[in-house]
């Protein structure tokens, strides 16, 4: 069962003020200054609006700045390029999808891990950015943003359970996040793909052995 084409603009929105921790590392330092937050929100919304009409590849920083009613120099005060803006926009919207579903991961809960996997599948399917013949410039930045959110969520959960295992929580979280994204991407590109609820169980089976490399001393019920 495949989803009808959609664009990034159709994914649930989230402002930078709601998730400032998702600002990419290469962007300016996090802030609670309302003027800075407002400008970043304007830029993200301008990008979303422009992508309703034009392909991301054809957009320029000047196009985005004008749509946000700011000057080009102000854009560069907040983002080094349009790719950093794209990553932040995708990341915040994906994080909102997870937040709306009330998903948290405590490091051991299988149900929560499945919910994360399902969220990745649903987000990719709704955006329809990886199911085209010409993914263009967007795919690697969408990939980076989603993997960063998943890695952070997994790592936060794993670090709650100290382990003497030789593999670090950082390595486990990174490997698992990449595996989840890669499997979800493969599913999204499959003709007549099954529902995400079905493939989520398959992906969970694939990544569970990686997470099992860290065995917390006190396991929480799934």
TrEMBL record:
* Compositional bias of kind Basic and acidic residues: 23-33
Which Pfam families does UniProt cross-reference here?
A: TetR_N
GO-annotated molecular function: DNA binding
- Stretches assigned to the HTH tetR-type domain: 37-97
Does the entry feature the keyword Methyltransferase, yes or no?
no
- Presence of keyword Methyltransferase: no
Q: Which residues bind DNA?
A: 60-79
Keywords of this protein's UniProt record, alphabetized? DNA-binding
Protein name, as recorded:
TetR/AcrR family transcriptional regulator
The species this protein belongs to is Tunturiibacter gelidiferens
């Amino acid at each position: 069962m495949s989803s009808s084409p959609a664009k990034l603009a159709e994914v649930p929105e989230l402002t930078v003020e709601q998730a400032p921790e998702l600002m990419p590392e290469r962007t300016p330092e996090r802030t609670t200054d309302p003027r800075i937050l407002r400008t970043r929100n304007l830029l993200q919304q301008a990008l979303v609006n422009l992508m309703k009409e034009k392909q991301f590849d054809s957009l320029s920083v000047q196009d985005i700045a004008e749509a946000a009613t700011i000057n080009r120099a102000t854009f560069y005060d907040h983002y080094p390029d349009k790719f950093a803006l794209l990553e932040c926009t995708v990341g915040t919207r994906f994080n909102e999808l997870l937040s709306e579903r009330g998903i948290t991961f405590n490091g051991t809960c299988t149900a929560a891990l499945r919910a994360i996997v399902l969220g990745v599948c649903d987000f990719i399917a709704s955006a329809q950015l990886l199911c085209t013949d010409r993914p263009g410039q967007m795919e690697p930045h969408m990939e980076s943003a989603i993997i960063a959110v998943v890695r952070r969520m997994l790592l936060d959960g794993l670090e709650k359970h100290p382990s003497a295992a030789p593999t670090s929580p950082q390595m486990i979280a990174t490997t698992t996040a990449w595996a989840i994204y890669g499997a979800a991407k493969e599913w999204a590109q499959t003709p007549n793909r099954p529902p995400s609820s079905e493939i989520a169980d398959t992906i969970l089976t694939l990544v569970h052995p990686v997470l099992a490399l860290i065995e917390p001393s006190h396991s929480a019920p799934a």
